[in-house]
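Below is a filled-in request sheet from our internal design queue. Each sheet records the structural input a requester submitted and the sequence that came back. We keep these sheets so that new team members can see what a complete request looks like end to end.

REQUESTER: design group, bay 2
PRIORITY: normal
MODE: inverse folding
CHAIN LENGTH: 78
BACKBONE (tokenized):
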């Protein structure tokens, strides 16, 4: 699964619209749409916002590697 698809999977698993996801993380909605569409690559600061946010931290390992570690609290949204 490519990175834009992973972002979308996380957002949908949390039941968020693009606007809501952006509000939670403080992202520009237009920029986030480009991340999800694969038009631009997400930068390290934005990636860290997702990875360090308490609501999305559980997906960090999967987002970065595609792996999960349920015993460590790292799960897949799909």
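RETURNED SEQUENCE:
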């Amino acid at each position: 699964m490519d990175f834009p698809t992973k972002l979308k999977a996380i957002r949908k698993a949390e039941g968020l619209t693009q606007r809501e996801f952006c509000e939670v993380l403080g992202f520009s909605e237009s920029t986030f749409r480009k991340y999800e569409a694969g038009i631009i690559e997400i930068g390290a600061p934005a990636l860290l916002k997702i990875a360090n946010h308490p609501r999305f931290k559980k997906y960090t390992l999967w987002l970065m590697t595609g792996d999960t570690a349920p015993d460590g609290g790292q799960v897949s949204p799909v």
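SHEET NOTES:
- The chain has a mean pLDDT of 97.
- Residues 69 and 75 are 6 Å apart (CA to CA).
FILED BY: M.R.
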